[in-house]
Amino acid sequence: MTEKTTFVPVSYTGWGALDHLLSEVERFKVKKILVVTDPFLKDIGITDKVTDLLKSGKFDIDVYTDVMPEPSLALGESLVDYTRAHQFDMVIGVGGGSALDLTKLAAVLAPHEGKVKDYLNLTGTKRVIEKGLPFILIPTTAGTGSEITNISVLSLETTKDVVTHDYLLADVAIVDPALTISVPPGVTAATGVDALTHAIEAYLSKSANNITDALALQAIRLISSSLRTAVKDGENRQARTDMSYGSYLAGLAFFNAGVAGVHALAYPLGGQFQIAHGNSNAVLLPYVMGYIRSSCEKRMKDIYETMGFSSASMSQEEASSRCVEELTRLVMDVGIPLTLRGFDIPESALDQLTKDAMKQTRLLSRSPRELAKEDIIKIYRAAFDGVVSQ
Ligand code: NAD
Fold first, then answer.
1. How far apart are the first and last CA of the chain?
2. Phi–psi pair at 75, nearest 5 degrees
């Protein structure tokens, strides 16, 4: 069987990668550039680091700073309207997944007709047909992998939906771990577990292939060995570097192999309770893994070993169970609550959460264990009560 794998055409990764920005922008022969970022990054000088590098290029630069975490559809609509009204030649996204996802919409939907809503995966009626403006993505968190995926995630009233097409792949990704040094511990933890979840779900996905397996395992190795340090000691250059590479590799893996149950159940938590994407994945990770374990013991044994544990004398059953235990410990060690109660989610919400999770058929179809309505409610209940099945 032939396997297809898609990558962003050009990436720069590693400490100091940002130095390549100017030459890359010049390659596109553009004049009027929109930089999309969030107000906090502008305040702490990260956005200026990027725009300062462009000063010698005599570009006309407009900085859009209205990005909010977990961006809403309304925010997407307003940025796309703004881009259409100003005739830019290029868009540069600087920030976490929220800024990068909005950058993709601005660049790709600029020459399209209609609203962003028309292009949503679950309910949209229009298709992306043009490449749009060239765009460069510069992540400042080590988490989403948005810089190398072809999706843009938007928060709706009760859940999330995506706009997806290969035209949403950046022309250039610049992953410079130096930009993540200022990420506070709580955001480092949430975004780091998000990246780990991407790698794990890609490795366990029904659509995994030889290439995504290699990417996912190296991501799991890097993230599981550096996340605790990055959270405790944000200035640790090696830990930040490993996290940036881990997040990048996990992004490549999940973009090609897909994510599954954890994300399907996490989207409604983000949509209904405004829980940061990384936290909503993290709180569900142990419960979904515990529930699907019996359908993917061999692969969970691989993950356990990749996390640095020896399973030489163990059966697959035992190693996969230990894997769930270690993942639970990691989430706990980086300070993320391990129950839905810990995020103030009431028991009465579980039915609606289940209904909304079931709409994520694209994600659920890749789970190694089929997740029907009765399975999903059981997982939410376990996460509410804090009972991980192993
Ligand atoms: P974010 O972009 O929402 O940022 C979270 C917070 O961290 C913000 O307050 C931001 O100002 C701050 N921050 C970012 N970089 C910082 C830095 N260097 N120093 C200090 N503070 C910093 O968080 P995120 O987790 O990166 O992105 C979440 C969004 O990405 C969600 O909407 C999620 O659904 C989406 N997402 C997209 C993909 C994809 O492939 N497109 C994948 C996963 C998640």
1. 34
2. -65, -40
Q: What are phi and psi of 152, to 5 degrees?
A: -125, 125
Give yes or no for residue 41 CB within 6 A of ligand 1: yes
Pairing mode of beta strands 10-13, 32-36: unpaired
Ligand 1 site-directed mutation target among 101, 197, 259, 285, most atoms within 8 Å of CB: 101
Longest dimension (CA), the chain: 64
Write out the two tokens for 326.
Answer: 């270690």
Ligand 1: does its nearest atom lie under 6 Å from the Cβ of 70?
yes
Q: Which helix (H) or strand (E) holds 246?
A: helix 237-257
Task: Give how far Cα 17 sits from Cα of 50, 54, 149, 202, 244, Å.
Answer: 12, 15, 19, 27, 12
Query: Using one digit for the tens of pLDDT, what is the confidence trace for 241-278?
Result: 999 999 999 999 999 999 999 999 999 998 889 899 99
Q: What is the pTM of this model?
A: 0.97
Q: If you take atom 25 of ligand 1, which residue's CA is the nearest one?
A: 191
CA 52 – CA 18 distance, rounded (Å):
11
* Backbone region of residue 308 per phi and psi (left: phi > 0; alpha: psi in -120 to 50; beta: other values): left
For the record, the structure tokens of 222 come out as 């890097």
Q: How far is the CA of 92 from the centre of ligand 1 (A)?
A: 16
Burial 7-18 (b: 16+ CB within 10 A, else e): ebeebbbeeebb
